[in-house]
Design brief:
The protein is of the alpha+beta class and 435 residues long. It folds into 2 domains: 167 residues, Hypothetical protein af1432; 150 residues, Beta Polymerase, domain 2, CATH 3.30.460.10. The strands form 3 sheets. It has a 5-stranded mixed β-sheet.
Length: 435
Amino acid sequence: MIVEPAPAGLDELLTNLPISLSGEEKAAVQQAYEYACQAHGDTPYVTGESYLRHGLAVARIIGELGLDGYTIGAALVHDILQPHTNVSLPDVAKALHPNITRLVHALNEIIEYANRDIYRRHLDNDDEALLETIRRALLIIVRKDVNVILIRMADYVHDLRLAEKLSEQERMRLAYEAMNVYGPLANRLGVWQLKWELEDLAFRYLNPEDYRNIARKLSERRTERDKRVARAQRQLAEALAEFGIKAHVSGRSKHIYSIYRKMQRKRLGFEDIHDKYAIRVVIESGLLGQEANNLSKSERRQREIAAKSLCYQALGVVHELWTHIPQEFDDYIANPKANGYQSLHTAVNDKTGQTLEVQIRTDVMHQSAERGVAAHWSYKEGGYRPSSQVNKYIQNLRQLLNVDGDTMELVDGELLQTELLAERIYVFTPRGDMF
């Protein structure tokens, strides 16, 4: 496994961001970086690198999600409240931008909850109902800004990338928590970019033999397979171009844990998994980039409808080009998943007999698929405000939690959230449920 090194410094981090930051955001990130340098110095992190390098690595993961500068800044200082720093929350509030302070405050709430004995007992119990209680509690804690939980997930991703440097006990606990708490949360929020890495890295340590077997089978004849997939990509790209469909066509292998789950769920052998290798078609919608900012609501709607129509036209091109496997088709555009995921999925046999999954979506759908709720949460005047799309996510989460407004009560009555949470007053029952 190749581990991407942390950025050497702030300049490298900012240079490689997929979005442009405002002047105020850049200043806030610079301020956070300098504060982290001063507070951490060269203090080593548990993985052997410095706390500063760890913060830069977590900030890079957050930046790759396309999140704003304040969230990047909070990622840089997510470990600032450590004994070696002698830094308190009031100190952070005095030194850093209010939006960064608020995120650090919420991160500290998560850490305090995770450090409670009852949280550990729930985790060690290996009971799905108790694990779901943990996941729901975390969602409630971060209900006002989901970016908080994304920083926490990015923290776990980077720790898992370097987990070989941890003790076996630390490594296994980290992997178990990633697999059973943060992986499911990433799925619930639709953040596939974090979900797949949390799951694959955790699976590597929790089920090393199964991980190695699948990885070995995927690597067998890789050169030959890659050539065939590349040839299929070219064929499809040319066919789409003939129909005037502007799209980006790429290939990929299904992630290891996803293959394992499908094998277990459907009782299939490795060779019976049809979507181990996939081609992805991303249709240009004209709804991304600077030009789209000047579109009226009506124009945006027209482009959205046109792009969706092109997805179905592209599906017709795929089925005309290759042999469709009838039982392998899902329309997540007409019927999105609960977390907002949209795409067309079909499976085909190409002219060489190779089985491929083909995913077709617009570039807007693709952005949402990769970054989930993070693709829609933006900073506006007066604080963070969710877009209309993120409101759908929040509504789905409220349905999962059976909540109404600021008063939240879990379906099973195990967890109650009221305005008291805003004042950080938590009450735990003898069972360990949070009120």
